Amino acid sequence: MSARLHDALTVVIQVVNHIKSNSLRDRLFHELCKQNGEEFERFVLHTEVRWLSKGNCLQRFIALWDSIVSFLANTQLGEQLLANKCDVFFLSDIFEKLNSLNKQLQGKDSDLISSKSAIAAFLRKLQLYKNNIRRRAFEQFPCLASVSSDLQDEDLALYGEYMENMHEDMQTRFSDLLMMVIPTWVSIPFEVNVADIDISLQEPLIELQSDEIMRAKFKDGKYNVWKTNDVATKYPLLWDKAQLYVIAFPTSYLVESGFSRVSQLLSKARNRLDIVKRGDLRLSLTSMEPDIKKLAEQHQPQGSH
């Protein structure tokens, strides 16, 4: 990100922190949003550790733009915000597109095939965005289109340069993924010509293509045929090659979701648990058994066992 766009994002974060960090200002801003009939009445805080944070923060910020400008009228922070208006609206659009890409890379069903497709498509879109913005075609940038009358040629050149740099950076960052060759028989096993694949895999692929149950599952489109339970057992040779592409772990989504579950465990409601020291939740439950038995005895009806 260029210094100018970074400064614009910094101003947004300063405005959010300025209002949210003071309870009186937060309440006053809340009342102003209610009076103006805004769809939202609160900011979304920005954090560096969440993929979708910047995009969500900017979208909410743009939705409340008029109220924010009114609230910060005649202040230095308000003047800085107005000076960076076009840049903030552009960042809101581009981070929304990055959010869309990140969502495609997330989920337990994400694999190398779907990730490569998402990255390759986004790189092509970046080139399209850059060319369209430079010729003032803002249909793909709704926020920027709303301030098109304020845009200068140097602004458009800056945004085009930013997307060009992003394109080059992503090509380098995902070069191994983009250069990876995915066999056709893995992506479309029932449509490929058997004669075009390795001889050692021809016979099992014919058996797979003749399997009416597997063909029906493939046409259904609800899940990948390679991720069904019987493929590894019935077609071990094919599975040995295909699993490299469909069981791969291309993103940190599962790691982040795992840490989120642990953080929920260690909430204030369960602050007596210690992930490091207890070793296993079962130990905590075991230590509670005497208390549970005692409680049960206290509530047990007389004469019953």
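The above is record 1. Record 2 follows with the same two-line structure.
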Amino acid sequence: MKCINCGTKCNSLYRHYSKDIIQLEHCIHCKELVDKYIEFDPVIICLDALLLKREAFQHVLSNNSTQAQWKLTSILLLFDAYTKLVHQRQNGDQINRPMPDSVLYSAFEWDLYFNYFLALIELLVCVVVILTAFIIVSKIRPSSDKLSFMSFMASHILCSCGNFESCRSFYNR
């Protein structure tokens, strides 16, 4: 557990007074709340992460379960798929697909599913490359304070928010 403001390690995020009453702890170093997102709904945390708030990322990486990271990953893959779809349509790339006025075309939007699968494959290839690099580096240079693979991958996946930024650039033209 870490403070989301300064990164100092903390013993606890909150103190229990009774079954329903808790008090958030203050950081010893910066005197701010250790993690204000403890009381927030997961939807609000995801929205703050999409707004690129550093504290939301720090909460998800340090003080939250991995379930939130998987939800955010699926949202980011959807943004990546949408970005790929917009690029294809702007460039006029036409693959043998049904006409846009077809009921099936509108109901299923096959190109979005295909691009989602493509984004997932790209992410998996990236994970395999990073895992291979981690294994090679750990064999060459063993260290006592290793960065765990899972925390590194969670950080990398959350850094994929740059794909969301490129999607936003289409609308700012």
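The helical segments are 42-50, 54-62, 66-91, 103-108, 110-140, 149-158, 162-171.
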